[in-house]
Amino acid sequence: MLAGLSLSLLALLLPLGLLLDWLLGEMRRWHPLVGFGNAAGRLESAMNKGGMCFMRGLCAWCVAVLLPSALAWMALAQLAKWSLLAACIAHVALLYFSLGLRSLRDHALPIARALAVGDLPRARRLTARIVSRDTAQANEADLAKAGVESLLENGNDAVFGTLFWFLVAGGPGALLFRLANTLDAMWGYRTPRFDMFGRTAARIDDALNFIPARLTALSYALLGNTRQAWQCWRAQAPAWSSPNAGPVMAAGAGALGVLLGGAAVYHGEIEQRPPLGTGAAAEGSDIVRAWRLVSATACLWAGAIVIAGVFRA
């Protein structure tokens, strides 16, 4: 029993969380992850100073991620003893709050539409909302590449990793994964400020993502050009700086038959990144193709998980 629910029941609840995310999208006001980000920022400001930065970062991670996830686990386990229906609703609600499939579509496809009509200023503004690289002087190819890369990588971070950990530990598992992933995005930088303090957030996120990232890469390969995706995964992923983003983005780029990676501007400096994928450079229409790959993978996961849940039941 996972926080009061069986694995088979969690498998059957998973599509409901996906459906809620698809129908409702992100909450525009009072989103829990936004509130978490604000609280995590204040926690970092209070604890990331003085000596023993690594231990301070470890303690901060436990307070920000482990504590609320453990409390959610205990609360749902007790709720399941009182009402199985209420526990199911709570698990689905936690999955909904942790997912970002609809958000990926809502942020990425407007970039493709802006590029289709040649509106570079709007495309730059929209792209700047979803990537950390500089977009002020980006051309169409740069923006298309950024959009495709963001979709492929966040397909794992915002969707498939969450689904994986929901199956492992129910709603609290999905919550833990998204909180850990959010902290990695906030603290997991190799800068003087975050190198030691954020090391725990970065390493735990790597560990939590290890299996989901490779399942995501495999799914991309199955739903695209399988041979090409596999070749890119094997040859290009080891050169990428992230042990999890490398397989996901290399397999996704190979599946789509587009060339990603290469030069990108961060904080005013050009960074040369290893190539990903093969074929022509990404275009605006490839953002749409990348979204279709991510959404098809979500359908594949949901269908496979439900079938497995039914047979297990």
Automatic annotation (TrEMBL):
Instruction: List UniProt keywords, sorted A-Z.
Output: Cell membrane, Cobalamin biosynthesis, Membrane, Transmembrane, Transmembrane helix
Q: Which molecular function term from Gene Ontology is one that the record holds? A: ABC-type vitamin B12 transporter activity
Q: Which residue spans traverse the membrane?
A: 54-75, 82-99, 158-180, 248-270, 290-311
**A GO BP term, please?**
cobalamin biosynthetic process
Pathway noted in the entry: Cofactor biosynthesis; adenosylcobalamin biosynthesis
Q: How does it sit in the membrane?
A: Multi-pass membrane protein
Q: Where does the protein end up?
A: Cell membrane
The lineage's top-level taxon is Bacteria
| Cellular-component GO terms for this entry | plasma membrane
Function, in words? Converts cobyric acid to cobinamide by the addition of aminopropanol on the F carboxylic group.
The Swiss-Prot or TrEMBL record describes its family as follows: Belongs to the CobD/CbiB family.
Protein name per Swiss-Prot or TrEMBL: Cobalamin biosynthesis protein CobD
* Native organism: Oxalicibacterium solurbis
> Lineage in the entry?
Bacteria, Pseudomonadati, Pseudomonadota, Betaproteobacteria, Burkholderiales
- The coding gene here is cobD
